Amino acid sequence: MKRLLLILCLLAGPALAVQPDEVLPDPALEQRAREISKELRCLVCRNESIDESNADLARDLRLLVRERLVEGDTDEEVVDFVVDRYGEYVLLRPTLTGANLFLWIAGPVLLLLALGVGFLYIRRRTAAPEPASALSAEEEARLKQILDD
Q1: CA distance 128 to 148
Q2: pTM for the structure as a whole
Q3: Span 85-141, pLDDT tens digits
Q4: In the chain, what are the helix, strand and coil shares in percent, each to the nearest 5?
Q5: Three-class SS of residue 117?
Q6: What is the pLDDT of residues 33-67, one digit of tens each?
Q7: Largest CA distance in the chain
Q8: Residue 139, CA distances (Å) to 134, 144, 148, 149 in order
Q9: Helix H or strand E segment including 143
């Protein structure tokens, strides 16, 4: 029984959503289509590639990729076509240019800024207070008078 469970666990890898009618007859083109599909995000499922997603839009994108490859586009041209059509959000690994570069850099910069502010706050808070000035003779006499009453 344990062996059966182990075999089932090993066979339970990620199931690809590519349907038999989508597969290209040329194995080289099909391999290129699979590689491109693994890099494109399903717009319905959010964090799945179109190669793994069963959504209708993912199927349309897989067919679009294969159609462009059959027409003779290079891998970069296919990805550029899809990005032009659906925006850069469709890439599972966004480029490090323009606004994306700002977003990639903003997180670490804000973390360092917050750590610096926190360090200064703690340092100032734990600093020794200034010593109180000594009382004059008049003040000591007045204090003694108040305490005796």
Answers
A1: 32
A2: 0.59
A3: 988 888 888 777 777 788 888 999 999 999 999 999 998 888 767 766 788 889 889
A4: 65, 5, 30
A5: helix
A6: 889 988 898 888 878 888 888 888 888 888 899 99
A7: 106
A8: 10, 9, 14, 16
A9: helix 137-148
